Amino acid sequence: MMTTSPVDKPRYQYRDLDLSSKEIRVVELLPGALDEAIRIKFHHVALSPRRPSAIRLPPTRKEIQKTLPADWIVRVCLDGRFLFERQRQYGPEEPYETSWLHPLTGVDPNVAFDDNKLEYEGLSYVWAPAGGEEYAYVVEPTAPSTGAASSRLNIRPNLAAALRHLRYRDTPRRLWIDALCINQANLEERNQQVHMMCDIYRRANHVVVWLGAEDAHSKLALSALRHLGEQAVYTERGAWRTNPPGCSNPELARASVALPFDEQTWDGITKLLQRSWFERLWVWQEVRLADERSFMLCGPDSISLSVFRRAIMCASDKKVLPSARVRGLILDAVEVMLPFSHQPFFRELQTLNWKGCADPRDKIYGALGAAPAAIRDRVRPDYALPVEQVYGQFCKAYLDALGRLDFLDRCNVDARQIEAPSWVPDWSVPVDRAVRLPYADVFYAAGASAAEIRFRPGAGGRRAGEVMMEAAGVTCGTVSFVGPKSTADSEGLRAAVKAWEPAALSTERYAPTNEGAVDAFVTLLGLGYTIERWPQCNSLLTVPEAAELYGREFIADPQGGTVSHESANFIRVRHRYFIKTDTGYMGTSHARPEVGDQLVVLLGCPSPLLVRPVAAAAAAATALPDPDSHPPTGEQRPRRFRVVGATYTHGLMDTEALLGPLPDGWRARMARVSGFFDSMHFFSAATDEVTGLDPRLRGEEDPPEWERMEAVRSGADPWNFARYRHRQTGEVINSDPRLTAAALEARGVRVETFGLV
């Protein structure tokens, strides 16, 4: 046991890193028994550029497939490994014939050599609150491992526990640990190291996840999850589940087969998934940068990261789980554990809104590991900047890189703690899960159009330095009625929905879409989540089923006190307001609307927005002079508005504001094209045709200067995108050139410029 008092040792003074050579510190954890004092050394390591010549990559999937017999196929697992599967008729209970080895050569194609990996392990853990600090004693790097410590560092209890469990008894271990390896007091160093975080974890030999100390049932939980994860493997970006080679209980992976876990096991799994590691923002990129050799540690017990991921995904597929609470915890864990993918970055950013971090700037900086290079290169961490400036710079970088206004979906006039223009979301304010639309970025109000904006410094209208964003779009109406805000509880939800209900609902028609008012209203209550729009989601209702359910529970029984379980699952408008416009539209918004708000669709924004006019006198009194500024079109200076929030407005979600209604018999719906990820397609009821080409643009020639390309999604694309290449310059864009402001005006659409302040 260590008997030296901590006060006998001075605080460790960090030696500066050579930031020009991208140096990092690596901790050498010196050997010791579990109850001995923690002793470490620091080493400086240059994170030199990756050398392509030092990497021997495995062959591509297409290359491997060419070498296989006709009855074999190669699949790509979520962790990047190749899996071989024999194609033949299998019996209902028969497991698939799979192998990690090539069926002809017996070679594992997953073996690759990357000399760019460095000899340290990246630690993923939770800092935990300050208090009850322990000490790590620092030995000089040139001293022997048994040498005396010269100084000390304060460390928090959770890290101390992790180091004690990670420490070997007889050999050192090298780790990268953010709390120790970054001099938190040196702002310049901290900025650079945070920007390098993606490379630091990617270059690690592997990642170790510390979940915390063991509890009464954690060993049982990990054992059950380990067995479950060994029965399933996910390929094709999650679209295909099969059994891995040598699994002992393959039927357990089927969605219809209940998990044979007893109450103690479920209790252990529940407590495991409630650990704070799953709620921390930074772990999200740390675990996604981890390779297949990485593992999770809970006390002395470990589980492969890949196996844990497969277990959680398999559990999330189960039709029956112990409770909605358990299902929610499992789904939250799936969001954390999914590897980097072709999922749009904004979707990842939305997921991180619920994750915890000590510094609100990290709501952006902690997500950069998943950001496309075009965004990451435009955002340099700077913890000296005010939070609102960090958020504003990110929005500009997002616009520059992707050309979209998806982030306006996060704006809420009522949920702001920062002093910034209304078009800058306050990322520090978590969105209630009952309010946030999980797939709002797949809404299609602006189609595959790109934003057309310009910024005017000094014209924000509230304080010096604010910026007005001028954005092109279309006015769709003025709010003429605001219904009460709904609540999450059953009685409050029912009362609000009844207050929203249009008169003569059963007999009237909804003018914007020329359909029955009851069909339009129930589609609105479900925020468009119906079988007709999401045909692959069997748990959803069809519009007629939803209408019948509403008629039975709300119209036939107007005084009913509660909402049934079936209705509660379908209705998605909790904590939302209802609006009607003078043009006949119905919609809902998470932000509080007012009569007189304008309903608009901006180019490049997937959801219709509510914007609030700024009084001319107030704008003139507060705006800074900007004599050289002029609107993009050379017309008069645009009217000024504040962003209220995004809406779901029935009849505007499928680009109707720009292109008009779909032809008779056509419907917009989501089609699965790769794994978990869907894209907007169009379905003809008359011919059963499903196409990615908008029928409203059929027969219309592409602009002669643009050549259409195959639209293969990459992580740098927004959800709604197209791919065109300029015939002369070679420029490639991610939007449809037929949906520019100029092209729309040529079609007779009245495009306006809105000044957002």
Automatic annotation (TrEMBL):
Coiled-coil residues: none
Limits of the Heterokaryon incompatibility domain: 120-286
Pfam families: HET
Name of the molecule in the record: Heterokaryon incompatibility protein 6, OR allele
Gene source species: Colletotrichum tanaceti
